[in-house]
Automatic annotation (TrEMBL):
It comes from Fodinibius salsisoli. This is Capsule assembly protein Wzi.
Length: 489
């Protein structure tokens, strides 16, 4: 996208957000409205200075992992619904002021939303994890998790799964397409983000089955040039955008096209095939899901069928109990399209030869946080930012409500880490994968107690512990916070 058009689009998304927020707060014919707002303050500390893994991972990019944190969080959402026209306006804000080794103010959410029947238009920055994972207990999707601050974008999609007409209520679909902008300093300046997915669900009284595919692509922007070559614009026209949407290669006669975008596809893709089965029993629901991870055309033909994620969960119908839901996930990213005799990890997940900032935003990966975006434990990634993407991991998540006012959530994560293909070397200097293996175990427990439910006042505290050789030291930390929340109609 040429700079003039890009600047115009950025103004449009800002204006669109402002218009949507204005409609939210001033729609006069609303039949129903709800306001939710509150404040939360927390302290995070650790014995070794650096915080344990689960304090800063999947935390929306709010927590500084390298020091003690004191955070103050203001949040608010507003919804107005006009039942006479089936129109709903809403908006939200999440603002965080952090005192740490890197003092900052972060707006993790600032958005406006317009919904008509089952279609939603959203503009701004908002939480939007992607994939069929059980996100409340997951280690994080390989596509998009809540590991970093959301990328600002404009999104058009369905309101969850919607019924397809003429199917007797048995077929549903969920879809989305969005366009976003990477706003921080990157190797490629000002690239765009394209996202889309489509899932179809068959629904029965006793079970449901969902299949679909999701696609993300970083594309366009200004390349800094190599050697004496001046900065130049990567493919950014509307026809290039259509190639990104359709997953097509760039034309050989196009200007300033990297070779891999001619042999592969335009931009840096992160995608997946997914499937999920849910079975209803008398007192609980059983779920199992599978994500086949994809980064290039070869992967579409299942070159690495075992790469991706498995998950299974049991969720009890009774929401009160010591255990109300339990999840197990398994992630494997070893093969990465390598042939049997090749070093594993050849595709170098989340890294890219052109878009060298990788599948990351604001210093953290956009997908699964076990894939690390910085040097660690002898793994430096070479000239790529992602230092550890060959991983086998197991993760257990549990939550419950043992008392009327007390809830908890616990994680237990074990990973075998092998760095990247760079660490294996080539030829006579080749290092076997097992010689690179580094094991790590991370645990986490968070407890929330409503001390004054009538006043929306609660206390929360958490403990986290890392044991292993992936990080420099074993790490133990604690968090304590207080939260005040109000809701009015």
């Amino acid at each position: 996208m040429i700079p003039g058009i890009r600047n115009l689009c950025c103004r449009v998304v800002r204006l669109g957000t402002l218009i949507l927020l204005t409609l939210v707060f001033y729609e006069a014919k609303a039949q129903y409205q709800q306001i939710q707002y509150g404040l939360e303050s927390s302290v995070y500390a650790a014995d070794a200075g650096s915080l344990p893994f689960w304090f800063y991972s999947n935390a929306n990019g709010i927590i500084d992992p390298s020091s003690t944190n004191f955070t103050n969080h203001f949040f608010g959402t507003f919804t107005r619904h006009d039942s006479t026209r089936s129109v709903q306006f809403s908006g939200g804000i999440d603002a965080h002021a952090r005192l740490s080794g890197d003092n900052t103010i972060v707006f993790s959410q600032l958005y406006g939303q317009l919904q008509y029947h089952g279609i939603r238009l959203t503009a701004g920055r908002f939480y939007d994890p992607m994939g069929l994972n059980e996100h409340d207990l997951s280690m994080g999707s390989l596509l998009v998790s809540r590991n970093t601050v959301p990328v600002p974008k404009v999104q058009l999609g369905t309101d969850g799964f919607v019924l397809l007409p003429g199917t007797n209520g048995q077929l549903l679909a969920r879809g989305m397409v969005s366009h976003g902008w990477f706003t921080e300093k990157r190797y490629i300046d000002n690239p765009n983000l394209h996202q889309k997915y489509l899932y179809v669900r068959y629904q029965h009284d006793r079970f449901d089955f969902t299949v679909g595919a999701a696609h993300n692509a970083v594309w366009g922007g200004t390349h800094p040039g190599v050697g004496e070559q001046s900065p130049y614009q990567l493919p950014s026209s509307f026809s290039d955008y259509l190639k990104v949407v359709l997953g097509q290669s760039a034309s050989e006669d196009s200007d300033n096209v990297p070779d891999n975008e001619i042999t592969n596809t335009v931009g840096n893709s992160v995608a997946a095939y997914e499937g999920k089965l849910g079975i209803n029993f008398e007192h609980f629901r059983f779920k199992v899901y599978r994500l086949f991870y994809l980064e290039d055309k070869v992967a579409l033909r299942f070159r690495s069928p075992w790469d991706g994620m498995w998950g299974t969960a049991i969720e009890l119908d009774n929401s009160n109990g010591f255990v109300t839901k339990i999840l197990w996930e398994h992630m494997n990213t070893k093969r990465q399209n390598a042939w049997i005799d090749d070093p594993y990890g050849r595709t170098n997940y989340y890294n890219n030869g052109v878009y060298r900032s990788g599948w990351a935003y604001q210093g953290k990966v956009l997908g699964n946080p076990l894939i690390i975006n910085r040097p660690v434990s002898g793994f430096d990634g070479g000239h790529y930012p992602i230092s550890n993407n060959i991983i086998v991991a197991h993760h257990i998540g549990i939550k419950g409500k043992p008392l009327d006012r007390l809830t908890y959530k616990a994680f237990f994560t074990y990973s075998r880490n092998y760095g990247t293909s760079v660490d294996q070397g080539e030829g006579p200097d080749y290092i076997p994968l097992d010689d690179l293996r580094t094991d790590e175990f991370s645990s986490y427990l968070k407890v929330n107690y409503n001390i004054a439910p009538d006043y929306g006042l609660s206390l929360n505290s958490s403990l986290a512990y890392d044991v292993g050789n992936l990080y420099a030291d074993n790490r133990f930390g604690f968090q304590i916070g207080i939260r005040w929340e109000q809701r009015s109609n």
